[in-house]
TrEMBL record:
Protein name: ABC transporter ATP-binding protein
GO cellular component: plasma membrane
Assigned keywords, A-Z: ATP-binding, Cell membrane, Ion transport, Iron, Iron transport, Membrane, Nucleotide-binding, Transport
Topology in the lipid bilayer: Peripheral membrane protein
Pfam family, one: ABC_tran
Main location as per UniProt: membrane
Compartment(s): Cell membrane
One GO process term, biological-process aspect: iron ion transport
InterPro entries listed in its UniProt record: AAA+_ATPase, ABC_transporter-like_ATP-bd, ABC_transporter-like_CS, P-loop_NTPase, Siderophore_ABC-ATPase
Organism whose genome encodes this protein: Paenibacillus whitsoniae
GO MF assignments: ATP binding; ATP hydrolysis activity
């Protein structure tokens, strides 16, 4: 494995859907051991880029590097041992239990010669513990709350035991409590286990709070990338989202906090 400071890298990447070019000569680097968040308006290509980094979409040209090696030249199982991806809105077969779902994360390590082992079981148990799902292990996935289901899918990716985890909008359709629950879990995994986390998020304030590195995408290009404190400002929000905002400092975390302009009820001064 090549020694590099980047878990993933896109070099001169071109991605197309039919005659529609999504990215042309894109360059982006994902720092190892950090949380990276992709932001951008709907349809800008955030999820497409994430899928291409996971080798779920073949580029027209250019290369994706995983730990410094061209991902196209690695076997499927080798990639699955280094990187896990959780797509947006995954669904499980009816009646599948949490334990059965999490066990699927161990498929890269199974073969005709190597069946289920004590090590596989250890990783499943640990994934359930990390996601606080031990008491729900025998419950059907479809019987859980939204936050619990999302934790179950994250547990499956953790059982895969990869240093890099990609998640496409992991907080979509979750209420605020469950959004924070999921993001706190990913934050702890990064901090305690130095896992590289790459996410697509829509909430700019949460992206700023949890990310070490933000990649802002606009019209098939990387408009800006860097720490939230360095790149998230009123100009970026106007140009990337076409939205006029006031950017201040989050009083709890010291990260950029975006307050959009728009119509709303005006509170009059109290007499």
């Amino acid at each position: 494995m090549t020694i590099t400071n980047h878990a993933l890298e896109a070099a001169s990447l071109q991605l197309t859907y039919g005659d529609n070019t999504i990215f042309k000569s894109l360059h982006v680097q994902i720092p190892k051991g950090k949380i990276t968040v992709f932001i951008g308006s709907n349809g800008c290509g955030k999820s497409t880029l994430l899928r291409s980094l996971a080798r779920l979409m073949k580029p027209t040209s250019g290369a994706i590097l995983l730990d410094g090696e061209e991902i196209a030249k690695l076997s499927t199982k080798e990639v699955a041992r280094r990187m896990a991806i959780l797509p947006q809105g995954p669904s499980a077969p009816e009646g599948l239990t949490v334990r059965q779902l999490v066990k699927q994360g161990r498929y890269p390590y199974q073969s005709w010669l190597q069946q289920w082992s004590a090590e596989d079981e250890r990783h499943v148990v640990r994934a359930l513990e990390l996601t606080n799902l031990v008491d729900f292990a025998d419950r059907a996935v479809d019987s859980l709350s939204g936050g619990q289901r999302q934790r179950a899918w994250i547990a499956m990716t953790l059982a895969q035991d990869t240093p890099t985890v990609l998640l496409d909008e992991p907080t979509t359709y979750l209420d605020l409590t469950h959004q924070i629950e999921v993001l706190d879990l990913l934050f702890d995994l990064n901090r305690n286990e130095e896992r590289t986390i790459v996410m697509v998020l829509h909430d700019i304030n949460l992206a700023c709070r949890y990310a070490h590195h933000i990649v802002a995408i606009k019209e098939g290009t990387v408009f800006a990338e860097g720490s939230p404190e360095d790149i998230v400002n009123e100009e970026l929000l106007l140009r990337v989202f076409d939205m006029k905002c006031q950017v201040s400092v989050d009083p709890l975390f010291g990260t950029p906090m975006c307050i959009p302009y728009g119509k709303g009820r005006v509170l009059l001064p109290q007499r």
